[in-house]
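User: I'm putting together notes for a lab meeting next week and I want to include a structural view of one of the chains we've been expressing. I don't have a solved structure, so I'd like a prediction I can at least talk through. The sequence is below, exactly as it appears in our construct file.
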Amino acid sequence: MQQAQDFRDESAALAALVAPLADADFERETLFKGWTINNVLRHLHVWNVAAARSIEGDEAFGAFIKQLMGGERGRRFTEYEHDYLEGLSGHRLLDAWVSGFDELAAAFAATDPKARLKWVGPDMSALSSVTARLMETWAHAQAVYDLLGVDRVDSDRIGNIVRLGVNTYGWTFKNRKEDTPGPMPRLRLTAPSGAIWEYGPGEGGSDDLIEGIATEFCQVVTQCRNIADTGLAVHGPVATRWMAIAQCFAGPPNDPPLPGARRRS
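Assistant: Thanks for the context. Below is the predicted structure for the 265-residue chain, given as structure tokens.
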């Protein structure tokens, strides 16, 4: 799967960003729920381990979740992740995460894309699983880029996230117990390479249109940015509603950050 290499490359980009930092810098807080860089890397590492166990089989995955949760419920995930990793932090955490994502990418590359894998929510295909790992890595990395005042230079591998955003159009409304308001709006996005990516029912299928930079569309559907903090042009009531609540990740409904709440330092 090309997505396995895309996941490895996206992870490596974040690793290169934080590698020059001192251990103390890993405790700096981002604008994402006050998570530190340590929190971000622990979260990515623990759920990469979970994905690796899911490839090994249902029993291995179930044993991992039992070990992670320790029979407890109601704690924050950052607490479970901290305890599971015994407080691993700084460059020792970075090294463990790098080793882990490299092994996971290799495991995904050797897995049938259609294989069904266990997860904390519904089972998913291996292709969906690696795409979710790529998306989560990219989304959480945004908080670190913002904290460090670095403008990320994306590649066309974010096309995986665009497609995930497209594929979760209907689910975004269903997750909120809302009726889908109509056909998915047309998308006309400019990829990092300059290519034009178009999705939707085509001319005449919908009067609603979203156009602009693909990176900003990804920021909205992953809730790294409020739509008001992007340059996306949104035309029509269906497009407007979708961009106000878009959510391409699993879990209960989440509201996007308030305008101005997530930004580059």
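A couple of points you could mention at the meeting. The mean pLDDT is 95. The two ends are 36 Å apart (CA to CA).

User: Perfect, that's what I needed.
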